[in-house]
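HOLO CASE FILE
Compound: 1,6-di-O-phosphono-beta-D-fructofuranose
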Amino acid sequence: MENQNVNSLEFLLNHPKTGQAISDVNAETIERQSFSPRKIKIFSSTYTTIHACPEYTFQQDTEAQKLLPDIIDNMVQKIVPGDDKSTEVRQAFGIPRNLGVVFSGGPAPGGHNVIAGLYDEAKKHNPASRIFGFLLGPDGILESKYVEITQSLVDAHRNMGGFSMIKTGRTKIDSKTKMELSLKTCRALGLEALVVIGGDDSNTNAAFLAQQFISAGIQVIGVPKTIDGDIQVKTDEGQMLCAISFGFHSAARAFSQNISNLTTDAGSDTKYWHICKVMGRVASHLTLECAFQTHANLSLIGEELADYTDEQRLIAAQENGQVDYTAYGMTLRHLSRLICDTIVRRAAGGKNFGVIIIPEGLLDFINEIQVFIVKFNKIIAAYNQIHDHDFHRSFPTLNDKLDYLRRLARGLGDNTRFPIWNLRDDDLFNQLPSFFQEGLLGERDTHGNFQFSQVKTERIIMDMVEEYLSILKEQGKYKIGIEQSYFKSIMEQANLISDKFATAIFTNPDTDFLIIKESIISLKTLKQALVHAELIHPDDPVPPPIGHIFKKSDPKFKTQTHFYGYDGRGADPTHFDCNYTYNLGLTAFHLIANGATGQMAVIRNLEKKFDQWEPMGIPIAKLMHLEERKGRLELVIEKNLVDLNSNAFRVFKAVRDDWRAAGSNPDRYRRPGPVRFTGDTEEDRPITLMLNSI
Ligand code: FBP
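Model generated. Tokens follow.
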């Protein structure tokens, strides 16, 4: 460097500071990778055994009994200390084993630690054990594409977000051929067991694989992954065995930090409403958690909307001796009215800004949209069955699809075979904007789920909100409240008697925030009010301070929309998720070493202190029920939605009005901070989880 010209690019690039600045790895990453998650005490015993728990019961589905006969009688299995002196146990743990692991579905923070836990434990018991990671999800199993997991590969991914170590995919192993291919791959690798790290659909897949592989002596263990938080397992008696899937906490914290930053920005420049759509597929768990983390002004919980009853409409119908069935459930129009109510009430307190959180799956709880989704599922499934040709390939553009629907509605084409699309449906659907039609007619994912993340839900809702706000504005009902002290000060400066003017133009001249009368909606009507109150002569102009106040009271509704989903899925795991997932990996190993199959590795008591965490296996087959997918009934694990009777929801309902901060109430925003890793943060866990455990 000595001979280099200090102004040269070469000098700059070779400078140690430049090297440090542009390095791929920073100090935080190094610190993260070197963190050792805590181990549940039981895992410090060398050997464990499993203890069947018949006291935990689940209602079984008869279809599951039929299709999963060899694993349906599994019981919940607690992992307890094993007999260190037993040669049998020592041998069972000490044999070299080949294990396979696969990620399935969307990424969730912490997945790498599941592999790390599995790897560490397998190697601890026998360094000759080998772990194979299937690449790009279940496709890796079907196509026999895998890598051997090595120490350096694991070390580079410890405590790091994403599923980049072996990547993921959404392929469903749902046919005889795919089952046979999977078995072939696992046999060729000499696998003793396969660990499927996935959500409800992937664990469903794990159960079918377990059933299929049982005669080949290959065990299959599932691990509950999904940021959506919709895998929760309770027994018939209500004992919570799995309170939350991994990744939920980290994603919720990542979303919440962004949302909280928006509350700060909104409260600073006071001119935008930020509309934040948050992932979660159908369930609103993530939205509820973000609401607690940030205290945003309005958080919509889909499950609550489905439960909505319009009392006023019911009463009105009752008065005429009728029942108005349309009063049950929420419509898009009604929802937009509810949002406007918050906006108008905040504006009255001078706050024409705020933050709204909308769950991605909201549409599934809106009456008219739900009907469309269900009908399209049926139409598309029936078309595919009749034509042996995929609906989306046959009708690639929106216009093609709309044409087909139009023909159906008129009784042409295939209508005789599935007459569920009539002229009224067609008319209603054609009133929706094309971007929205496109979203609703979009392709379902491989598991038959409607792809909510692809639909611009926030746009359709906010368009309706905007439309209704302009009606309210014309009616003089949407106004920004003016602080009384401000009004008085500018009147004083102009030597005008504030009381007289206040009575003439405000509805509430004695309160903190003054609202201009509904009848005053323009400079012309303002002048009329002043003339009528004999404060000015018809030929006089409106006094400038009054004109200024009027202008200030006139709201402009400006929005910024945001989608929080993929970013949070890729976040690094929180301390909670690091510990949780590492122990899930250990649990999976111990279930395997103890011969379990068709079980999902879980940790009980997540809401309690770490030393009370309990690793166990839950029978996946017992969590299954029949659900409509791609127009037909299929056996799948039931998704858990937000329970409106849960502590978390009841608390939310009780405090949300404070967070709305309508009128002169102050904002109550909360700063959750970034996804935390360092420091004593082990006790930091989802707020909803903590509340539900009370
Ligand atoms: P999983 O159920 O596989 O965990 O996926 C969760 C999720 O992030 C949902 O919240 C979201 O609706 C969906 O994945 C998005 O799917 P894609 O990755 O196919 O866009």
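CASE NOTES: The pocket of 1,6-di-O-phosphono-beta-D-fructofuranose is lined by residues 105-106, 108, 199, 226-228, 279-281, 360, 445, 452-453, 565, 569 (CB under 6 Å). The two ends are 64 Å apart (CA to CA).
CLOSED: yes
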